[in-house]
Write a structure and sequence with these properties.
317 residues; alpha+beta; six-stranded antiparallel β-sheet; two-stranded parallel sheet; 9 helices; 19% strand; extended
Length: 317
């Protein structure tokens, strides 16, 4: 074989080697892409399955709350004789954990008929100064009235239409607690709490029923004091109807004096309730619950009409 033939053969072999390397790189790239795609699909499927399980579990918690309200839990939950509004209940099933609580809308601040003193106390607890409190209270009233004459520190259509993202005030009764965050002066409160945990549009009065406090309302009234919150829960378990005397003992002299004008004490007669339920997929491992996905929260606003249930709102998170 001549020298030229040898060189030609070497060049051919070198080119073949480059082609083989390129093919191998392409195959490796395609294999990596396929592996990544399979893993991504698996993760999507896992999260979709976990979310579906969480929603089903949380929906079960809503139904458990409804069974309690209809006074039919005996055949559903073994050992549960008494049921108290505002208390969180928990059940662990084969495929996950359910936690839920039920509160009457009578235990929240009515945005359409609010007690100015209790609203001021709440805003103060959220570190809102007096000047800003006045803006919020006047603007809330302007939001609801039908005219375009704003109060001294309030706001009407001209203010809201001049915003970067303009909108029109309702000029009527608030329909949903989340409207609170649309009112002038509430911007810095957005995201700090769920409006429906404090406010309502289904309380028939401007008073708050001490017998049906949501967890956040209890935290507000007790100023976050753990001992006072525990005392409230113990008293709620012991007494069918809480009284002003019990409220005084739980809250203490100063706090009771500040809040008492807005509190009432009666067996709940409301027909509208909020049920907040969380479903967390998982299983028991060596007597400890092992989560297998994120918890899903469902909030249901319901109205009881005899043995019938009307859903007014349903929110999944």
């Amino acid at each position: 074989m001549s020298k030229k033939q040898v060189e030609h053969r070497i060049r051919e072999q070198g080119f073949a080697l480059v082609v083989v390397i390129m093919v191998m790189l392409l195959i490796s790239f395609l294999a990596a892409e396929l592996t990544l795609s399979v893993r991504t699909d698996q993760q999507i499927a896992f999260h979709a399955k976990a979310r579906a399980a969480g929603i089903c579990l949380a929906s079960g918690g809503v139904n458990m709350g409804i069974f309690h309200l209809l006074d039919k839990p005996a055949a559903i939950i073994e050992g549960e004789d008494d049921f108290f509004l505002g208390r969180t209940y928990e059940e662990i099933l084969e495929n996950g954990r359910i936690s839920y609580y039920v509160v009457s809308e009578s235990g929240k601040i009515n945005l359409n008929k609010f007690n100015k003193k209790i609203l001021a106390l709440f805003l103060e607890s959220m570190n809102i100064d007096e000047e800003q409190q006045t803006i919020i209270k006047d603007s809330l009233l302007d939001w609801q009235d039908s005219n375009d004459l704003h109060r001294l520190n309030g706001a009407e259509s001209d203010y809201y239409e001049s915003l970067d993202d303009p909108y029109i005030p309702r000029n009527g009764n608030i329909q949903d607690p989340s409207e609170f965050f649309l009112v002038r002066g509430t911007e810095e409160l957005a995201g700090k709490f769920v409006a429906a945990d404090i406010f309502t549009v289904h309380n028939r009065s401007d008073s708050i029923n001490f017998n049906s406090l949501s967890p956040l309302m209890l935290d507000f009234l007790t100023q976050g004091d753990k001992e006072k919150k525990e005392a409230y829960r113990e008293a709620r378990d012991t007494h069918e109807v809480m009284t002003a005397s019990l409220a005084h003992q739980i809250l203490g002299d100063e706090r009771f004096a500040a809040c008492s004008s807005a509190l009432v004490y009666k067996k709940d007669s409301s027909k509208v309730y909020t049920i907040v339920a969380k479903g967390e997929p998982g299983r028991m491992v060596e007597e400890k619950f092992k989560p297998e996905g994120r918890a899903t929260e469902v909030r249901a606003l319901i109205e009881l009409r005899g043995d019938k249930v009307r859903y007014l709102a349903w929110q999944e998170n």
